[in-house]
Structure formats: structure tokens, C-alpha cells
Amino acid sequence: MRTIDFNNICTRILGADVYPFRPNANNGPRLNYAYAFIYIKSGNGFVIIDGKKYRAGPRDLFCIEPGTAHAFAADGLDPMVHASVYADLVWDSTSMQKGDKWLNEYLFDKYMPHLCADRIRFADGIEFPLQISIPTGADWLEPFLSVISHFDSQEIGDAVRLRSLFESFLTGFARFLANPYSPSDLRIRKMIDWMQNHLLESFLLAEWADSFQLSQSYLYELFRKETGVSPGQYFMRHRLEHAKTELRESNRSVTQIAEKHGFASVHYFSRQFSAYYNESPNKYRKRIMGTYDA
Q1: Residues with Cβ within 8 Å of residue 117, at least 6 apart in sequence
Q2: Which region, left, alpha or beta, applies to residue 30 given φ > 0 means left and ψ of -120 to 50 means alpha?
Q3: 96: helix, coil or strand?
Q4: What region does 134 belong to: left with phi over 0, alpha with psi -120 to 50, or beta?
Q5: pLDDT of 292
Q6: pLDDT averaged per 10 residues in sequence order, the chain, 294 residues
Q7: What is the C-alpha separation between 95 and 197, in angstroms, rounded?
Q8: 133: left (phi > 0), else alpha (psi -120 to 50), else beta?
Q9: Rounded Cα–Cα distance for residues 247 and 86 (Å)
Q10: Neighbours of 83 (CB within 10 A)
């Protein structure tokens, strides 16, 4: 794991393509040698990451770190179409070259860790989520798609152009994660306002669906399309962000912070925090502040 400031990224694009799956097709499991950013252009299916299955649909974006076991399963009637970009985020942490055909290894015993690009952690707190739905109107997605359309270029400076396009996408993505768009639907805005002011209460989608006279499934998808994540994920992320700030800015113990922010136990808080940020609350505090709260 390598820690850098987001402003110090220096990306090198190793692969980029569009891949249409056949109905009911399965691909993997496999290990990737570089960061894999996989955008679902159309269709449906599942992405299985480290044994956990994620439902995948149009406008979903998956960010898979190097050396992560993952697989795909396409829908039988409406199979997925992937737009994928493989990148080294610090330019030269892998000897893999642009266009290499073996950016994924299917035989795990033949995987060569020394060829794997560095996993990156940003010192300024930016975290690329494993899965997120890209809201309609996200113009920062266009450079990502442009990387794919220009990938086979043989012109002078093509590596510079690909880097510029991809880093434009990453910058827009990071800004979106820091300041998500305000939802246009008043019902979703009402839900978000409640979440922001009731961190210690339980969020019940069924109650909101009843109040809006909508089905739970419709409200779930409406919220997801407006914000990029499910209602439960949004509420949990908001609670964790508040707890993360307190870990960084207070001397309260992890247990005290968990209790303050409405988590049933410090163990549950630690599991949720670790799942979202890829490190425990204690390790985060130690890394950021140089202290360790037992």
C-alpha cells in the first residue's frame, strides 16, 4: 500500500475496451495486475468481488484494486456491456505495458505479485467506492469513455492524452464523492434532509415508501439513480463520515464514538468502517494522527 496526495497521481493507461457479454456468460474468477475501473454501459448481471456478489446494472461503476479476486455473471436476457479502463495510478509501479493482453490472471497459482501495480491510499481522505451508480448528467464520465475511444491511437503524445483524459475523469469523480449532486426529486431531498438530522435513529425504507405512496423497490431505485447509492448505503456513509471526522479531530475512544453515532456496538461500527474505508477505525486514527486508541 502506498500513500500519496490525490494531486500527485500520475496515471498510465494499460488497457481500455468495451466488452459485450453473451447471455448467461460467466467470466473469472481472476486477479488483476492494475486498477480496474469497470462501467456498466447497458444490461444487467453480477460482479463478484472477493466472494461477495454485487448486482450490476446500467450506469454502475466498479473500482477494483490491483490483486483483487473478481468475476462476472451476465443476465440471461439482457447481458451486461462493460466499458473498462486499467490503470497504474503512479505511472511506473508495474512493468506491464499499454496493450498487454495479460492484465488479468485466471490461474491464481501463476499470479506474479511483483508485476502488480501499487495499491494507493490518498492522504487527503479520498476513497473510491467499490461500487457506485453514476447519476444522469455526470459530465465527468465523458473523459472516461473517451479514454476507450482513443486508446488505440498511435499519434505522438497519445500516452499524455490518455493520462489527461483519465485524470480529468478521476478529478470529477473525486469532487462528486466529496460533494454529491443535490437530488432533483423533492422526495429524495426530503429523505436526505432527514438522514442528515437523525443520525441516531433507524432508517426504515418501508415507512418512507408508505408516506410517498410508492413501492419500496421503486423508491429504492429512484434514490439510487439520484444519488448513486442505495438509501441504506447513503445513510451509513453519512454516519461513518461523521464518525471519521471525530476519530480525526477528537480524543474520544473508538467505543465512545461508536456509541455517540448510534452504532449498536463498537464491533459493528468497526466492521462497517473497515468495509467502507478498507481499514479499521484504530488504524485510520493511527495513520492520520499518529495515535492508537485501544
Answers
A1: 33, 34, 35, 66, 87, 88, 89, 90, 93, 94, 96
A2: beta
A3: coil
A4: beta
A5: 42
A6: 94 97 97 98 95 92 97 96 98 95 96 97 89 85 96 93 97 87 85 88 94 95 87 90 87 92 92 87 81 42
A7: 49
A8: beta
A9: 34
A10: 21
HSE, side-chain direction, 13 A CA sphere, residue 142: 5
C-alpha cell at 222: 429512484
Give first-to-last CA distance, the chain, whole Å: 23
pLDDT of residue 245: 85
Residue ranges of E strands in 116-257? 120-122, 131-133
Q: What integer pLDDT is reported at residue 289 of this predicted model?
A: 66
Reported as type and span, the H/E element at residue 216 is helix 216-227
Alpha-carbon gap, residue 279 to 12, rounded angstroms: 26
pLDDT at 145: 96
- Which grid cell is 28? 473469472
DSSP H or E stretch at residue 135: none
276: Cβ contacts below 8 Å, ≥ 6 apart: 127, 129, 236, 237, 240
Q: Do residues 37 and 84 lie in contact, with contact meaning Cβ atoms separated by under 8 Å?
A: yes
* Chain-centre distance for alpha carbon 41: 16
Q: Which residues pair with 45 in a beta bridge?
A: 56, 74
What one-character DSSP code corresponds to residue 140?
A: G
| Residue 100: all three cell numbers together | 498487454
Q: How far apart are CA 167 and CA 140, in angstroms?
A: 10
Q: Which residue has the cell 473525486?
A: 174
CA pair distance 282, 294, nearest whole angstrom: 7
Query: Can you tell me which residue has the cell 445513510?
Result: 235
